[in-house]
Amino acid sequence: MDQIIFLGTANAIPAIGRENTHLLIRHNQESILVDCASNPIVHLQRGGVNPEQINHLILTHFHPDHVSGAPLFLMDLWLLGRKRPLFIYGLEHTLSRLQAMMELYDWRTWPGFFPLEYRVIPEVEKAKVLTLDGLEIVASPVKHLLPTIGIRISFNHSQKVAAYSSDTEPCEEVVRLAKDADVLIHEAAGRSIGHTSSRQAGEVAQKAGVKRLYLIHYPANLTKDELIQDARTAFEGEVFVCEDFMGIDLTEE
Ligand SMILES: [Zn+2]
What we know:
Elements: E1 2-8, E2 22-27, E3 30-34, H1 40-46, E4 54-58, H2 64-67, H3 70-79, E5 86-90, H4 92-104, E6 116-120, E7 127-132, E8 135-141, E9 149-155, E10 160-164, H5 172-177, E11 183-187, H6 198-208, E12 212-216, H7 224-232, E13 238-241, E14 247-249
Parallel strand pairs: 3-4, 4-5, 5-6, 10-11, 11-12, 12-13
Antiparallel strand pairs: 1-2, 1-14, 2-3, 7-8, 8-9, 9-10
Helix pairs in contact: 6-7
């Protein structure tokens, strides 16, 4: 099974039925969480995923709408009886702040807390994040208001590739990261410093030569039709608007 599930799709302001953007990569028995908004436990359960199956957490950047759920998520895993390590991947900027946040919660006094294995991702293009049997994830720095990564996920058995921009303005790093991918998941928070409009996301998708564009992290006041039409003015491929719990199946047909 090669799948991406959207656990949240909102920009920084969530709404009823739309949680802050975070997603899940599923590959056979492995489930990899990308960002940790709100408390992912409930959304994982609603998405049919046992939270205890998560062994890997990738954090794209240290903004509250992407990381603020991490301490409660970790606490809940501990209370659920987790013993085995959790691997957490991110830039030095992100991981050092996550560690400081955990110190504020005095997590060292939580008896029998499971090991946290931090893996610092170097701030270079296509840096290796993790490799599992049949799955490879690399990261590139993108252009947001603070150090941020986008990721490229290669499912080796199905030969499918997906890229996720995270929060960024349009940039060549994402074009290269998404080059010839089957799927580009791009933020569409709107044209501003550190962000991208749906039309600009379409331009990035067109330059990268991807097959399908999925718009995410978009404001609640825009309709799906507006977002899609805007992206289509620049992109010839298919455009979709992500909704919470929607999935993309990248398993071999
Ligand atoms: Zn954000």
